[in-house]
Amino acid sequence: MIHVARLGFVLILLCFCAIPARSSKSQPSDEAYVTLLYGDEFLLGVRVLGKSIRDTGSTKDMADGWIVELISLLANPNQVRPARFWGVYTKLKIFNMTNYKKVVYLDADTIVVKSIEDLFKCGKFCANLKHSERLNSGVMVVEPSEAVFKDMMTKVTTLPSYTGGDQGFLNSYYDGFASAHVFNPNLPEDVLKSRPVPEMERLSTLYNADVGLYMLANKVLIKRTASSE
Length: 229
Ligand SMILES: *[C@@H]1O[C@H](CO)[C@@H](O)[C@H](O)[C@H]1NC(C)=O
Prior knowledge:
22% of the residues lie in helices and 25% in strands. By secondary structure, the protein is of the alpha/beta class. The protein has one domain (9-22, 29-224): Alpha-Beta Complex (Spore Coat Polysaccharide Biosynthesis Protein SpsA, Chain A), CATH 3.90.550. A seven-stranded mixed sheet has the order 3-1-2-4-7-6-8, with helices on both faces. Strands 5-10-9 form a three-stranded mixed sheet. Strand 9 (209-210), helix 6 (211-217) and strand 10 (222-224) form a beta-alpha-beta unit. The chain is globular and about 45 Å long. The structure holds 2-acetamido-2-deoxy-beta-D-glucopyranose (NAG). The site of 2-acetamido-2-deoxy-beta-D-glucopyranose (NAG) has 2 residues, from loops. This is Hexosyltransferase. It is an enzyme of class 2 (transferase). Residues 1-23 form the signal peptide.
């Protein structure tokens, strides 16, 4: 019965739209910062995250704030999983946000401490390698694609998830992620054009650091206020 009640929770996918500096406000944005809020536990976190993006996004024309989009739950197919992971598969819907060319997804327990606009230069899929050679789904850059999303949906119930959540699924889906090359936002245009866009790239550690590392290095780009998965 608890599960039925939970389906009634509001699932919200929030887009914080960043309009590229060169375009005027009247043009629709094709890049967005996105986070996922299910239930109300992380509402404050999401507001802080939004404020932190605004505070660092000085080179961009910013929209007023989060654009709230109500979306339906993508049920977690795993029987064995932590109870709090009931809604996490919904995160996969960022791959279906095809009205955007590029989406930077940030978990609601992160804050941005420095401009991360470079992330929008990532090709198809970028994430960090953490947890002994596994990708972390707390910070990801995604090029939304109907084909990729549809393919994922055909595998949602069959691919194993070591966490019982979206992160485990994505580690199965992006098999071999540990050997992906590191994303370099400063590659010259001609190099970018002369090579096929990699299916996946790794982000440097500083794009998704824990609070402890932030204190030590004092230069990370995103810090996590709590570790989730
Ligand atoms: C994916 O996006 C399309 C187009 O916006 C929409 O019609 C469809 O319902 C979405 N699929 C899911 C599972 O959310």
